[in-house]
Amino acid sequence: MAHIIVVGNEKGGAGKSTVSIHVATALARLGHKVGILDLDLRQKTLGRYMDNRLAYLEKTGLDLPTPSYHELPEIDQAALGPGENVNDHRLSAAVAGLEPDSDFILIDCPGSHTRLSQVAHSLADTLITPLNDSFVDFDLLAHIAMDGETITGPSVYSEMVWNARQLRAQAGLEPIDWIVVRNRLGAQQMVNKVKMEKALDKLGRRIGFRTAPGFNERVIFRELFPRGLTLLDLRDIGVKGLNISNIAARQELRDLMRALTLPGVEVTF
């Protein structure tokens, strides 16, 4: 069966789609068959990223390793039983259609709570939660006292992950490997950064996630989107002598892929 990776939280602007396209494309470059789904049915940032990539490859004639993007199929609502949710069936049908030809299925969730996102979390073998390195975003996971250290209780998102874990346990599935990815890390050892690290470490032990470093804020990510490219494509499109920022960004991606410890994946780029 395909290993399902879900990239989700309930807050926009944390870098979910950037993480999604880079993880999916990195896996494709490592020789794995990857199918991807975008559950943000309104904005479709990941879907737009893939549209841009395919258009760029067609225009340039390049053949770059690329995951397979799929829309959720339409379902005949007349065929649904009483109380059945059409989106549940759309997601189930999409995953079932991808599984025979995929080593990995990556699902990018919207930055809000939806029924689709809730169901996707219960399907996750690996859950990646990108988080900006600030206490504003930390509130997504748990509430914290004014001292920046005392955790007063879990957030609604953490409770949703807990419910997804319970559903998986009832179905006899393996537990979710939950990784919180710290994006936009500051380069210096600022007080806020140190407090965030301590708070995440404490919360991770309490509710069961591990942390991994993500991406620093870099202009290159904004520049890549219109062509649907990733950091690993730069040399293939003729960019020589990568600058220090781009080299550092590639190392961040390498570190992230190793931290995910996905089954059968050896990071060789």
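(ticket continues) Second input and output from the same batch:
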Amino acid sequence: MSPPPTERRSKPATSRAPRRGSGRVTIADVARVAGMSMHTVSRVLNAPENVPERTVKLIHDAIAQTGYVQDLVAGGLASGRSRLVAVTVPTLGSPVFLEALQTLSLHLSRHGYQMMLTESGYDPELEVSALQAILGRRPDGVVMMRTVLTPTGRTQLRAARIPVVEAWDWNDDPVDMLIGFSHEAAGACVAQFLSETGRRRPVAVIGNDPRAGRRLQGFTAAARELRLIDADADTPHVLIPAPATMGAGRSGLAALLAREPDADAVVCSTDMIAMGVLLEAAALGRQVPGDLAVVGFGDQAYAAATTPPLTTVRIDGSLIGEQAARAIIDRLDGHANAGLRVDVGFTLMRRQSA
């Protein structure tokens, strides 16, 4: 029985790789080493599910032998697709987005898209230039782990006519699609919890980024209603640079207790800050939770292993990543989901630190 057409060899296979100095390895080199046609190699690269398994293996062996890398730029020009989705995070120095990024990358790759990760920063003045650099690479979609800060940025993204997801945040007028939660509501939830557990003199150590600020606003508004602070007062707090370090958490607590020695609860804008607060409290002889309740934000992998285990606000990063990938892919597949808004909520993880 003759082999299927895609497996018919045009000439004997050879194990020789392309000669040095002959230029970049091409699809023709792969075809020569595999002993098959360029058309067959192309089918394996672009639609392997339609090619016999034995042929796919032969082509992949030839690709590994030659070191061939597919020219995605040329393919993108021909198809009108770059197969890239640009993803921006405010900072690469924070682990809080890691769960979402891992899930997002996994779901995109399963559909043939690669994630291009960039850092956007917290400064609105830098947003326009950052978006220009991203959009200039012609991604098929954009996922931002924040909301767009400037009118010019919003105009740039809408003019690109590609799907855009703003994530890890919430507002009333998204650029396109929105997947996130209310930071104000998360802050208010922490205030309600501290009130229920009998705390009456809260303070806060907060990173100087906009979302942490909104959580503090939500906490303060609820704390006033709950009479944890005076009706016209602000929550006593210190601001530290974002992304915050453990050391900044230690120095932040020391500064607060020098001003507010009777504080009985410390609200932290990240788990990393909270870890520093726990260390400083121990160094100062303050018992947690006896003297001080400590609450973090993010529920990082180490939060349950601190001493004592950290009470914190958990955000389902995997759900955000999955929903963001699905929203981008659905739009690229022709499904109308403009205006999509998904509130993933949050969960207060009640542990021994509070």
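Agent notes: Residues 1-22 have pLDDT under 50 and may be disordered. The first helix runs from residue 27 to 34. Closing as not reproducible unless the customer responds.
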